[in-house]
Amino acid sequence: MDSVDKTTNRSEQKSRKFLKSLIRKQPQQLLLVIGTGVSAAVAPGIPALRSWRGCIEAVIEAAGQLEVLHPGDIAEFRRKVMKDRDLLVVAHDLIRKMSPRTGDTKPNFFQDCLMEVFDNLEQHIQNPLVLQSILTLMERGTMVLTTNYDNLLEIFGQQQSRPMESLDLKDKAKVLQWARGHIRYGVLHIHGLYTDPCGMVLDPSGYKDVTQDPEVMEALQNLYRTKSFLFVGCGETLRDQIFQALFLYSVPNKVDLEHYMVVLKENEDHFFKHQADMLLHGIKVVSYGDCFDHFPGYVQDLAVQICRQRSPDADRVDSTTFLGSTCQDCAKRKLEENGTEASKRPRQPDAGDTVLV
Is it the case that residue 332 has pLDDT exceeding 60? Predict the structure, then answer.
């Protein structure tokens, strides 16, 4: 019976329709926003990657195990996580509680807890299909931004011999290079990365230097005006205060923009209401299905559809790129062979190289 269900699911996925306005985008016209859903699909064995709530709960558990919080505080934060809707406030209070009493957040025990939670990430990559699809888009010019603390994408990219780089909003020079498209394999972590305690921030006040810098803000907001943001694995990203400060509420005439969000359709009424609400922000909400298991396959199929659009680098990508193969040596050898062949022959301009909007 299970095999029949799986076959049915696959056939349903194959027959799924994609928005033409999305799949006709050139990869370089997109900016991919990665949320916790991506990490949860890639490394399901780490509960902290499944959701923002799961991450906070894991940090609280680690704080108890490492004895960096009083048991009474541990109990209080567990209660808050279950009760409070605004998890960013809870996380902010948690960081403050593990920081010096001067009010400064450096140094703090929060980073130690995250390192405990995210220890040996590379050993927990079970389903790299989504990461392979994202890397394929990056190879074709898609920019990537994430609200996640983990660096699973960078780890996977390095395993595929790509010069991956984790970027932090506190590094103005790097941010400007990335925003101008000069760092192809750069991943911008707007909340920071768990390996760097100085770059981890959870509220807009922590980025006042960024939000008050006209050059940086103009570069970032220009992306929201000129790129199509594609939200993947994002549940609460639009509630995120930092994202709101950087993009959502600082860019006028959002209804004239064309962004996309891929979501799970658990409840039909909620889905269509969410869809209508997001159009006010210039965001088209589409469903990848009513089961999270459909997510990796949907992302792969979507990436294949988008990468079929002709671009200057089209001849550098072949079908092996989309397979998500675990045979890294074969994939690497194939890429090296393609690179050698391409270097021997000049590329002829293709009459079909047009931008489809």
Answer: no
- Domains in the chain: boundaries: 2-46+125-344, 47-117
Task: Quote the tokens at residue 117.
Answer: 């939670």
User: Is residue 228 classed as helix, strand or coil in its secondary structure?
Assistant: strand
Residue 61's CB: how many other CB atoms inside 10 A?
Answer: 17
Distance CA 267, CA 7 (A): 24
Residue whose structure tokens are 């940086």: 216
How far is residue 89 from each of residues 55, 82, 179, 189, 193, measured CA to CA in Å?
A: 14, 13, 29, 19, 19
| Angle at the Cα of 120 from the Cα atoms of 114 and 125, rounded to 5 degrees | 110
207 close to 169: Cβ distance less than 8 angstroms: yes
Residue 194 in 3-state DSSP? coil
- Tokens representing 347 are 């590329």
Structure tokens at 175: 């941010």
Give the ranges where 212-267 is alpha helix by DSSP (H): 214-226, 241-243
β 186-189/259-264 pair status: unpaired
Average pLDDT estimate for 288-308? 94
Q: What is the gyration radius of the CA atoms in the chain, in angstroms?
A: 21
What is the overall mean pLDDT for the chain? Answer: 80
3-state helix, strand, coil in the chain (%, to 5): 55, 10, 35
- Alpha-carbon gap, residue 77 to 259, rounded angstroms: 36
Q: Are 257 and 2 in contact (CB under 8 A)?
A: no
Q: Is the dihedral of CA 268, 24, 190, 300 positive or negative?
A: positive
Write down the pLDDT at residue 200: 67
Q: Model confidence over 200-255: pLDDT tens digits? A: 666 666 667 777 888 988 899 889 989 999 999 987 777 777 777 777 766 777 66
How many helices and strands in the chain, by DSSP H and E?
Answer: 16, 7
pLDDT of the residue at 319: 38
C-alpha to C-alpha distance for 147 and 193, rounded to whole angstroms: 9
Q: pLDDT tens for residues 99-125?
A: 888 766 677 888 889 889 888 889 999
Show the beta-strand stretches assigned E in 113-264.
143-146, 165-168, 186-189, 228-232, 259-264
